[in-house]
Amino acid sequence: MKKEYLTLDRIEGSLLELSNLHRVSYGEVVKIISKDGKRSEIGQVIKIDEDRAVVQVFGNNLGVSTKNTKVEFSAHPFEIPLSSDILGRVFNGTAVPIDKGGAIYSKDVYNINGRPINPSAREYPRNFIQTGISSIDGLMTLIRGQKLPIFSGSGLPHNEVAAQIVRQAKIADEGGKDNFAIVFAAIGVKHDEADFFRESFKNSGVIDKVVMYINYADDPIMERLIAPKCALTAAEYLAFEKNMQVLVIMTDITSYAEALREVSSSREEVPSRKGYPGHLYSDLAALYERAGMIKDSEGSVTLIPILTMPNDDITHPIPDLTGYITEGQIVVSRDLFSKGVYPPINVLPSLSRLMKDGIGEGYTREDHPDLSSQLFASYSKVQETRALAQIIGEDDISEDEKLILKFGDEFEKRFLSQDQNENRDIKETLDLGWELLKILPAQMIDRIDPKLKEKYLGDNNGD
């Protein structure tokens, strides 16, 4: 039952305080209406103390006073209508259409906070998602139902990488995109960034399989906290109601965390590391843990959150806590970017913890695990040799070490580098890896089963 109150106790910024309330619930949606009824805003109950409550307004506070405002309690949490018609649509951070396509009409409405997944009902992720990017598919394979973040920095091409993944991603074992959908959440982005994503999806012909939730940088701060929840709710609907394989890409999680810090400060909460609230970990976990697969359900939710590390600091609270929750990370390198490598993914600090269970015979190819291990080890040796060459000079290193340096240059030039529109399948990626191993001395290829070495290298096995 809706309830209306006509007097506020206190207004401070975007926070409203009321008292003498009756049966108000935490998280309940509130409508704030000006005295003349011409202006209104949406808010949410964020604190309850006996018969008192604090309401966080999503937009501005309308310039109201304590006595010229009507507050209407809706008696339900923040919910959004969902149907199959959301595919190909663009919404703002509160799930209101902004593409002139009309409202979504559905009898089914869903709480944006999601439905908790019973841990015993989770299915262990197995099959891999092919992104068409060799460094990801070959060395840090994305598994269906996984949460694998991209750690980037300001000015690096993480948006281009995200757009390329959206254009090219597919469930390889199902042979296409018929049952594949993308949910894209942009949090605190500039208008030109949002336009870039929209045009990229439209020009590549995947727009009909993409649902976009866009929160612009000049939108209200509270919308940044709502947008990823709306996107994940849509993903859960498509996955578990419509049995689709859903890939969720969210950028930028740093904007989400900054919004949390700002809202927490306005609530006068005790700050934790670098001013972020103490509940930052649980807030991030509440988003990330909505990815996964459920037993007896054909659908899945795979999550790629993108975050820009302040000052490229991977120990910053946002990437640090994200690393605890997720199953690996993809690290975008400023050094590789300065060399002209695209995508500039630094494979050494990157990993996919679920990769081992979704590659190999029956999934990708029987040589994938050994090949991946060998490429990692060899590229690690490249870094050591480059450091040595800087000290003693490249002319004074051994012939084997010169081959190692040649491998490193070719690895970055041919394996890591590819065009933004180049879509490599997994077979092409693995074959390229074997071709590069032929550069190395034979004694360095020590992480591959002899049978596989004979099959893929033959007589030319690094001699």
TrEMBL record:
<keyword id="KW-0406">Ion transport</keyword>
<feature type="domain" description="ATP synthase A/B type C-terminal">
    <location>
        <begin position="357"/>
        <end position="456"/>
    </location>
</feature>
<keyword id="KW-0066">ATP synthesis</keyword>
<dbReference type="GO" id="GO:0042777">
    <property type="term" value="P:proton motive force-driven plasma membrane ATP synthesis"/>
</dbReference>
<dbReference type="InterPro" id="IPR027417">
    <property type="entry name" value="P-loop_NTPase"/>
</dbReference>
<dbReference type="InterPro" id="IPR004100">
    <property type="entry name" value="ATPase_F1/V1/A1_a/bsu_N"/>
</dbReference>
<feature type="domain" description="ATPase F1/V1/A1 complex alpha/beta subunit nucleotide-binding">
    <location>
        <begin position="132"/>
        <end position="352"/>
    </location>
</feature>
<dbReference type="GO" id="GO:0007035">
    <property type="term" value="P:vacuolar acidification"/>
</dbReference>
<feature type="domain" description="ATPase F1/V1/A1 complex alpha/beta subunit N-terminal">
    <location>
        <begin position="11"/>
        <end position="73"/>
    </location>
</feature>
<dbReference type="GO" id="GO:0046933">
    <property type="term" value="F:proton-transporting ATP synthase activity, rotational mechanism"/>
</dbReference>
<dbReference type="InterPro" id="IPR000194">
    <property type="entry name" value="ATPase_F1/V1/A1_a/bsu_nucl-bd"/>
</dbReference>
<protein>
    <recommendedName>
        <fullName>V-type ATP synthase beta chain</fullName>
    </recommendedName>
</protein>
<dbReference type="Pfam" id="PF00006">
    <property type="entry name" value="ATP-synt_ab"/>
</dbReference>
<comment type="similarity">
    <text>Belongs to the ATPase alpha/beta chains family.</text>
</comment>
<keyword id="KW-0375">Hydrogen ion transport</keyword>
<dbReference type="GO" id="GO:0005524">
    <property type="term" value="F:ATP binding"/>
</dbReference>
<comment type="function">
    <text>Produces ATP from ADP in the presence of a proton gradient across the membrane. The V-type beta chain is a regulatory subunit.</text>
</comment>
<dbReference type="InterPro" id="IPR055190">
    <property type="entry name" value="ATP-synt_VA_C"/>
</dbReference>
<keyword id="KW-0813">Transport</keyword>
<dbReference type="InterPro" id="IPR020003">
    <property type="entry name" value="ATPase_a/bsu_AS"/>
</dbReference>
<dbReference type="GO" id="GO:0046961">
    <property type="term" value="F:proton-transporting ATPase activity, rotational mechanism"/>
</dbReference>
<dbReference type="Pfam" id="PF02874">
    <property type="entry name" value="ATP-synt_ab_N"/>
</dbReference>
<dbReference type="InterPro" id="IPR022879">
    <property type="entry name" value="V-ATPase_su_B/beta"/>
</dbReference>
<dbReference type="Pfam" id="PF22919">
    <property type="entry name" value="ATP-synt_VA_C"/>
</dbReference>
